[in-house]
Amino acid sequence: MLFWQGKTKDRVIDLTSFAAGVLIAISILDLLPEAFAVGEAKMVSWAVFWGVIVLFLLEKTSVWFHHHHEPHGRTPEIVGVFLGDTLHNFIDGVAIGAAFLINIPTGVATAVAVGMHELPQEIADFSLYIRAGFSKRRTISLNLLSSLATLVGSLGIYIFGDVFKGWEVYILALTAGMFLYIGLADLLPELHDIDRGRGIKRELFFFFLGVTLSYLSMILVGEGAR
């Protein structure tokens, strides 16, 4: 099932479009308003800025290998894929933990955004490991091991919340910057680069489905928390 052939590849493209809509909507409509409402505006803006810059620098220095489709050209080193994905998952965990320190609705929204953009990422990782000669069992084990970094990051920052007291809102703004970078500079360009015969209607449908469902979930979770 998890190979880059036929309908499976189309499903990954659909997931990528959906994830882009989720990330962009939650960043702009939920995380940023929450951060600006609680934090000092100039510091929030700087945190968003550094969220974008940090991911840009990590990608440019090859510390972070972020992908959602089979890469063009030479397949990256598997060690780099594993370490980059582990770092990626740890940062996602920190973002989730910091969001829950703000309030439960923001935490849920952040967790949803992380989960949605992880789906195509993990499928892409599966393909890369298989192409490198790993068995399916070992591939699944490596993905699970890497995913534990999310739990470590989220529990760590939540448990030691007192240490970050007063700074969680800026971690949230940093997260919004990272989500915007992934959505605008990573996911959407990947969709543009895919060479296939179908039009853009399906991509637009899943993108705006992600936006709509994210907005509705913000309303429902927010109402439920009151």
Percent strand equals under 5%
Average pLDDT level: 79
Rg over alpha carbons: 17 Å
Largest sheet: none
Low-confidence stretches: 1-6, 68-75
Backbone shape = globular
State the total count of DSSP E strands. 0
Total domain count = 1
Q: Helix-strand pattern, N to C?
A: HHHHHHH
What percent of residues adopt helix (DSSP H or I)?
A: over 70%
What is the helix tally? 7
- What is the CA-CA span between the terminal residues? 42 Å
Output the structural class: mainly alpha
Structure description:
With 226 residues, the chain is mainly α. The protein has one domain. Helix content is 80%, strand content 0%. It contains seven helices and no strands. Helix 1 runs antiparallel to helix 6. The chain is globular. Residues 1-6 and 68-75 have low confidence and may be disordered.
Layout of helices and strands, plus pairs?
Blueprint: H1 6-38, H2 41-60, H3 78-102, H4 104-131, H5 136-159, H6 168-193, H7 201-224
Helix pairs in contact: 1-4, 1-6, 1-7, 2-6, 3-4, 3-5, 3-6, 4-5, 4-7
Summarize the structure.
This protein is mainly alpha-helical and 226 residues long.
Features:
226 residues, mainly alpha, 0% strand
